Amino acid sequence: MDIQGTRMTRRLFLQRTGALGLLAAAQQLLPACAWTNAATNIHSSVWSQTPLRGEVIDLTIGETPFTVNERTATAITVNGTIPGPVIRLREGQEVTLRVTNRLGEITSIHWHGILLPPVVDGVPGVSFAGIKPGTTFTYRFPVTQSGTYWYHSHSGGQEMLGVYAPMILDPLQPEPFHYDRDYVVMLSDWTFESPESVLANLKKQPAYYNFQERTAGEFFSNIANWGLRATLKNYLMWDQMRMNPTDFADVTGYTFTYLMNGMSPGANWTGLFRPGEKVRLRFINAASMTFYDVRIPGLTMTVVQADGQNIQPVAVEELRMGVAETYDVIVEPTDDRAYTIFAETLDRSGYARGTLAPRPGMEGEIPERRPRPLRTMEDMGMSMKGMEMDGMDMPGMKMPHGSEMAMRGMEIRGDQPSMEPSDPKPNTEHTQHDSEMPSTQKGQHPQDMSKMPGMEEYDQRRSRIPGSEPVKHAPDDHGTGNQTVAEYSQNRFGEPGRGLENSPWRVLRYTDLKSLTPYPDQREPDREIELHVTGNMADRYMWSFNGKKYSDAPEPIRFHYGERLRLTFVNDTMMEHPLHLHGMWMHLENGAGKYLPRKHTVIVKPAERVSVAVTADAPGRWAFHCHLLLHMEAGMFRVVEVSDKES
Ligand SMILES: [Cu+2]
Which of 117, 323, 492, 507 has its CA 20 to 30 A from that of 14? Predict the structure, then answer.
């Protein structure tokens, strides 16, 4: 869990920071067997969709030269490629996976979303001690589920350096949908910096990679639109919070190249089809720090699985993928032309791109890039339904370094802008802005979402969702580990997410997800555990739960074996966090009644209060954490211990 504790070897660090060309060239001269495993013979350095199958599979984790945009560095890989090899197994089989460590440091493999005994879950310090250099660890477990999953290192920054790969589990029963061919589409992010230097940069300066800050031109047009006084207040407020309304990703396209199946946008990964075929795409977000908004202009995507679980099919044009989530979609390209698979990053600082085409070498059009989104009052937990805002003096906005006093008296009135308009374009019409004003919106959803497509249905359904009414934050006791508190938090499963709210097409929402079949355990949760998602970026990049990083809160969260409990997440921060529970499903309490969808990873939006139900049927110690790699490393991590109530 400690990136400092599992530093890369000095040699590797030097390779990544200097003299890259020479060392990489020298490495390329090494015989292929340097990263070959005995059972499956030679691996080329080109990744392919061809899977490893069988009862016994050998994997080797080692250093490998990796070239992106004609620049080569040393990556850490599984069997020599990024991503690592596709592993394809069958529900009902047993598998033995022998993982050999050829690094100079401890490594590990975690099988993400797979239900298995805790000793083979692969988290150093929780499940086992990790795989020491030069040794082989044998994972053995029965495959009891089906769907699209993935596996990755759970050690230090190795996941950012290339240790991730797809895992496909074929079902015993026929699939409830039809397709003619299927492709894995694994999204990730690559940087030529070491994970340590990325983290160090963020600790020194939280906005280190954020080059999307507001410009002087925007400042003057804001004055024109809002007036000088209101504009100054707005800027002053963000400044005093030491935050930035353009802050959507800690690490951005400034350093990342965004990859699809290990290939940069220019290299253009291509999947072939014959017009009229149904193509299943298994999207996996294996990025270390990047949320993707995925679409294929010209094609409707029918979502058939979420996190490997069958759902009632939903047709959409775009879907957001938090880090570690997977979605399986079916598309039917009918024209004899190329279609672009476009995965734009949430912060709009870049994209991954590939192509579906009838013949190799074809390229589709690259869609126009969208403007960056901006944080709104809602993201800050300040404009929730029913909230009285007249004359409000920023309740609950805890400011660092005693600046809270300075915020008082900054009254917000209906005729003045207090925050950014929710429209992604920063300088919108005054009328647009007025509609954002709380005093004109009493009793209504602040962004007048009732006028948006799907919102009526959402409003009808939301009353059945725990947390659908705004809940006021109790007095803040999170300490210095938390920079701000969302005064009001509320379930936002029915919203597509910031930056997608004005999309002209259908965007997947969590309220669209309904399990195809009801889960056997339909008990109402009889216990609730509330966890606050907290952080303080202004102060050394701290991320935590309940204001405490893992190293300061080593006590496990206790589940009683056999119980059905509710985990309620309250996001006090202004970022989306993909929360991942090992060993057990999280059943999204999204109003779907008997058909709550099961997920291994749940995006929790800013100022959101959401809950998941869990059947605690897996005794042992399990990891629970934010899947943004550097948030986990910074301390947004806990151990969940499932044991009998008495013990
Ligand atoms: Cu996080």
Answer: 323
